[in-house]
Design brief:
alpha/beta
Length: 365
């Protein structure tokens, strides 16, 4: 008897038409809710920026956006062809991208995302892993999240409770690839002639290899920096001149001075001046610094570039001006009076003011 009753109820349910939302309903929902997702994307991006800055993780950019109405309605229509689908099922109404410099930083960013937000593991995906071992193509890590229980209690986050957002984490090269393959509408992801498809695959592989090589180079540069610290400490200075090596040596030998750090691109130019002068490694540079130290007082103020040039002028004034300064890309035209004092000690019989004026170099306070 019970089975017949249940069967009758099922027939009634099948015959009743379940009301579905119309396109107008979806448009109304979008218009009434999208501003929340616009705010959500902005505050999540700001939170990620401040967190990455605080942890010293470099990134290219963290762009964000709310989904547009046209894209929203198209997705609703496409999804409803296969199954019942509503705006509440959509997880990418707020989208954020974290574009890192190197691949190893993706894992660092991913770890922070897990700590900052509630990650929906079943909806999140690593596109690189899904490619498998024998394929190349679009690579990125996608997280679907909500703000999490801790933030739900905070007044500035409370109205965003329960709303999902998507975070994509990729390197700059991955991002460039995604822009070409997807976002620019070049239709490169579809069926192509075999020769073009082959070139397309080779290019994807080259970008992936470049990402891996950048990552390896970064690791090796960090190892080089650590080895410099050890070698300088142990006076193993038969090492090629580099901006990092020169900067570290100055810091170690002249730590008592109050000097400013110079931009790396300018420092590279002055290292070229050292080579023109005849100083080719850190050992040669260290010897010249040692000669200079006893003539410089603690109140001597300069930059790294100023110190390097002071080393050369102290070593051989004529050689510096006739061989280096005259050919310099950044030929300086004035000198502080405090630099004159230590040069006068080195060249007591020389009229420095007259010497410098002959080169059209002004002496300033």
């Amino acid at each position: 008897m019970a089975d017949k009753k249940a069967e009758a109820l099922k027939i009634v349910e099948d015959e009743v038409e379940v009301p579905t939302s119309s396109r107008a309903d979806h448009e109304a929902w979008f218009d009434g809710n999208i501003h929340h997702y616009k705010t959500l994307a902005a505050v999540v991006a700001a939170t990620l920026k401040s967190t990455l800055d605080g942890h010293g993780i470099s990134y290219v950019d963290i762009p964000y956006r709310e989904k547009g109405k046209k894209s929203f309605l198209k997705k609703i229509d496409d999804k409803k062809k296969k199954k019942d689908y509503s705006p509440d099922d959509m997880t990418d109404l707020a989208g954020i991208r974290v574009i890192t410099l190197i691949e190893s930083d993706i894992q660092k960013v991913s770890d922070l995302i897990h700590k900052l937000f509630n990650v929906h593991k079943e909806d999140s995906v690593n596109k690189t892993e899904s490619l498998g071992e024998d394929k190349v193509g679009y690579r990125s890590v996608h997280f679907v999240c909500d703000i999490g229980e801790a933030r739900e209690e905070l007044p500035e986050w409370k109205f965003l409770k329960g709303r999902c957002f998507e975070i994509q984490v990729r390197t700059a090269l991955m991002h460039a690839w995604a822009e070409i393959e997807h976002d620019r509408g070049y239709k490169l992801g579809g069926k192509l002639p075999s020769d073009l498809a082959r070139r397309f695959g080779l290019l994807s592989g080259l970008l992936e290899s470049a990402d891996l090589e950048f990552n390896r180079l970064t690791v090796e540069i960090e190892e080089y920096a650590k080895s410099l610290d050890t070698n300088i400490k142990e006076n193993n200075l038969d090492i090629e001149l580099t901006t990092l090596g020169v900067s570290k040596l100055i810091k170690k030998r002249l730590e008592f001075l109050n000097y400013m750090i110079s931009p790396e691109e300018r420092l590279s130019t002055v290292i070229k001046e050292l080579e023109d002068f005849g100083i080719y490694n850190l050992n040669d540079f260290d010897k010249e610094i040692s000669n200079l130290i006893k003539y410089i007082s603690k109140d001597y103020k300069s930059t790294e570039i100023g110190i390097i040039r002071a080393v050369m002028m102290f070593s051989d004034l004529d050689k510096y001006f006739n061989k280096v300064w005259i050919n310099s890309e950044f030929k300086w035209e004035h000198i502080n009076k405090n630099k004159i004092s230590f040069l006068q000690k080195r060249y007591p019989d020389l009229n420095l003011e007259k010497y410098l004026h002959s080169l059209d170099i002004d002496i300033i306070e």
